[in-house]
From TrEMBL, chain A:
GO biological process: transition metal ion transport
Localization of this protein: Cell membrane
Keywords on record: Cell membrane, Membrane, Transmembrane, Transmembrane helix, Transport
InterPro entries, sorted: CbiM/NikMN
GO cellular component, one term: plasma membrane
Domain of life: Bacteria
Entry keyword Transmembrane helix: yes
Membrane-topology annotation of the record: Multi-pass membrane protein
TM segment ranges: 12-34, 46-66, 78-104, 116-138, 144-170
Name of the featured protein: Cobalamin biosynthesis protein CbiM
Automatic annotation (TrEMBL), chain B:
Membrane topology note: Multi-pass membrane protein
Main localization category: membrane
Organism: Micromonospora musae
Keywords (A to Z) from UniProt: Cell membrane, Membrane, Transmembrane, Transmembrane helix
Protein encoded by which gene: cbiQ
Protein name: Cobalt ECF transporter T component CbiQ
Subcellular location: Cell membrane
BP terms from Gene Ontology: cobalt ion transport
Length: 238, 256
């Protein structure tokens, strides 16, 4: 399995800023754990594991942004928010990042707070806000769901990529001066393309799941008028 | 399928490093990395010291330098970023062999290269000496919330389910006359990604319900049986490397 590192590695952002974001990430994740516990039932537990595994696999698809030497990749925040909700979703993405940092050396351990803030927190939150908004505005058809998934995944990737720019502006180890704006533009442009890929994957996955097992899509839970609840499936599942 | 759960980087061996409990190794690795990152970038000698520590642990763990350096190539995109910095950086500039470079940028490159590489090497050593299952066991013993360790252990378990389902679907496509070659298989794969997710979920759900019916309550047996947790002696042994790294960092901070 030959992969390339794609998360912020050690030494790119200075220590104090990394520490501040680590504290921020820790506090937010604690809130996610507390809220997530309420969400996690027998159906969501395996789903959370699978979503994390899926994101893990999907993050291996990696696109280098040659002009800046920084690479972009799929994030999966919107997919997680859609299928397991914002709280457990943010935890799923964080788990992926922690395992990648500890085991694959992908993203420095000291920079975990920054990576978690960008991809798990900003990405999932941006995705979920758009999902919540669009699901109320768009028609309740699979086309509407597909558009929701596509747009929220696209935007969450672009927003998350700007998190890196914010962090670099706050505590980049090398002052880029006016070139920082250029880097911001490159990141946004490249992540727009990545976002299209991410949007397509998220939309196909969510629409397929919603067609066959609508009970598994967290984002649809509050919206469906109690459509024939599926029998609690203990033992015999399909 | 009891064995072989995504131990992609694990190197089977019985070295002293392998035998240390996972929680000890995780803490040692994290402290080491923080010490490296906290070191001022002008203290070149300190990074030499860290490299010696990494080399010593690698030798003790019987991990060869070829394997280690080959795996460290995943750092490549950030190396490219580092190379770009001397050209992008602002401030004082010097001329090296006809190139107009930023001094701050040069220090920045060195900073990223040295700290990034040492961090990657430390993670690789952890991965080479600890199975992913043990790693999660270690995180659990370090009081990581059960919700997180549960998601992590399912993630690692389901990665194999996902790969297995993808392989079965590919075989099914081929046996129905599809001819997946290079990029052409992308289309078939993209069209099937939703189905792949669903199939993997349903298999995973069956696995989960089977685990529940056999008494699974959110933690693996190895955790609540509590055997093999680190002793004070093992903590002390493993503390040598991060303690040395921390003293190097402190010295560099005082001198710098």
């Amino acid at each position: 399995m030959e992969t390339l590192a794609m998360h912020i590695s050690n030494g790119i952002i200075n220590g104090p800023v990394a520490a501040i974001f680590a504290a921020l990430a820790l506090a937010t994740l604690t809130a996610c754990v507390l809220r997530g516990r309420r969400d996690l039932d027998d159906r969501l537990a395996p789903m959370a594991g699978l979503v994390a595994a899926f994101i893990f696999a999907v993050q291996m698809l990696n696109f280098p942004i040659f002009t800046a030497g920084v690479s972009g990749h799929l994030l999966g925040g919107a997919l997680a928010a859609m299928l397991v909700g914002p709280w457990v979703g943010a935890l799923c993405v964080s788990v992926v990042l922690v395992v990648q940092a500890l085991v694959f050396g992908d993203g420095g351990v000291a920079m975990l707070g920054l990576n978690i803030t960008n991809m798990a927190l900003i990405g999932t939150a941006a995705g979920y806000l758009l999902i919540a908004l669009l699901l109320r505005v768009l028609p309740r058809t699979s086309a509407g769901l597909a558009v929701t998934a596509f747009v929220s995944a696209l935007m969450s990737v672009v927003v998350a990529s700007q998190g890196f720019i914010l962090e670099y502006w706050l505590g980049g180890t090398t002052d880029l001066g006016s070139n920082l704006a250029g880097l911001a533009g490159t990141m946004a442009g490249a992540h727009l393309f990545i976002g299209i890929g991410e949007g397509l994957i998220t939309a196909t996955t969510v629409v397929t799941v919603a067609k066959v097992r609508p009970d598994l899509v967290y984002a649809l839970r509050g919206l469906r008028p109690a459509a024939a609840p599926t029998v609690a499936a203990v033992g015999g599942v399909r | 399928m009891g064995a072989g759960h995504s131990h992609v980087l694990y190197r089977e061996s019985a070295s002293p490093v392998h035998r240390l409990p996972p929680e000890v190794k995780v803490v040692a690795m994290v402290v080491f990395t923080i010490a490296v990152v906290a070191t001022p970038r002008e203290a070149f000698w300190a990074f030499g010291g860290y490299a010696l520590l990494v080399a010593a642990v690698a030798a003790l763990a019987r991990v060869g330098p070829r394997w280690l350096l080959g795996r460290a190539l995943i750092e490549l995109p950030f190396v490219l970023f580092a190379i770009a910095l001397p050209f992008l950086g602002s401030g004082e500039r010097i001329t090296v062999v006809g190139l107009h470079l930023s001094v701050d940028g040069l220090y920045g490159s060195w900073n990223i290269l040295a700290k990034g590489t040492l961090g990657v090497l430390a993670s690789l050593l952890l991965a080479a000496t600890t199975t992913t299952r043990d790693l999660i066991l270690g995180l659990d013993r370090l009081r990581c919330p059960q919700l997180l360790t549960q998601i992590a252990s399912f993630m690692l378990r389901y990665l194999d389910v996902l790969v297995g389902e993808a392989r079965r679907m590919r075989v099914a496509r081929i046996s129905r006359g599809d001819d997946p070659r290079f990029l052409w298989q992308l289309r078939g794969f993209a069209a099937g990604i939703g189905a792949l997710f669903l199939r993997a979920f349903e298999r995973g759900e069956r696995v989960y319900l089977a685990m529940l019916s056999r008494g699974y309550s959110g933690r693996m047996p190895a955790v609540w049986q509590g055997a093999g947790a680190a002793t004070a002696g093992q903590w002390l042994v493993a503390a040598t490397v991060p303690a040395l790294a921390a003293s190097i960092a402190a010295t560099a901070l005082v001198l710098g």
